[in-house]
Write a structure and sequence with these properties.
Layout lengths: L6 E3 L5 E3 L1 E4 L8 H14 L3 E3 L7 H13 L9 E6 L6 H15 L4 E6 L27 H13 L3 E7 L3 H8 L10 E5 L7 H9 L3 E5 L22 H10 L3 H11 L3 E4 L4 H7 L9 H8 L26
Parallel strand pairs: 3-4, 3-10, 4-5, 5-6, 6-7, 7-8, 8-9, 9-10
Antiparallel strand pairs: 1-2
Helix pairs in contact: 1-2, 2-3, 3-4, 7-8
Length: 323
Amino acid sequence: MNFKHQRMELNDGHFIPVLGFGTYAAEEVPKGKIVDCTKLAIASGFRHIDCSHLYQNEEEVGLAIQSKIEDGTVKREDIFYTSKLWSTFHRPELVRPSLERSLKELHLDYVNLYLIHFPVSLKPGDEILPKDEHGKLLLDTVDLCATWEAMEKCKDAGLAKSIGVSNFNRRQLEMILNKPGLKYKPVCNQVECHPYLNQSKLLDFCKSKGIALVAYGALGTQRYKYCVDENTPFLLDDPIICAMAKKYKRSPALVALRYQLQRGVVVLAKSFKEERIKENLQVFEFQLASEDMKILDNLNRNYRYFSAEMFNGHPNFPFSDEY
């Protein structure tokens, strides 16, 4: 399989591989496993690696990338690396230093894509989730248009080839798009997206503006204690998805990933199991019939695994709008 052609052109002329390897890991996952699995993903054929300052593992992911460059598996230009600006660094003067810190941890000269991770701003500092003595989140108020201007400067400086956003709703995207003196449009909006939350309205809006939609949580999600209700339904146990998997002689996960690709969505797949990492690359080996795509569309129930309720109440909380 030639993965070189499985790419989408972004609105700034760069190309993003349509299948990415997600690297978020729960605290209990050993750091060494992150290195090993990222190396395996690259060795298996993944060229798009998605990470973030929030995940607290860029050093390990960087080690894996360097290792595969050094052993000749890939060159730096073969890898599309995404990092994200966390909410404690939204103030314009903090944007470039945050990216530079990520680059230092990664041992890279540039990232291919830098995203504003979440539109809610938090009090600056080294804590990921700064709280007061009562355990209440310390929010900040920052003009995201000013944050975006600082992101544009990172692109101009060559520290990020492309810039975009994550978890933005339509209104917040329009705020950036309508900003006076806008130099670069966001190339993408990375959002939770799967058959139970298919984001069809947001996808149509993004397509109309030349913005790629990137799907995280495309296989449902693991039950992360701090942000996901343990009683949530398992997407990959859905009887319709399972019946379709049987029909195509593929796993339910591959059906869910293929669904996104055929909608024109860039999709992230995360696994720390060797056989799953390799299996996910089989997404390019089959196609879903148009009637099956419609059946999967009808599974939508606007169900969000990652509700981000802890940020509710901030004026930039993105999930109160319809899309």
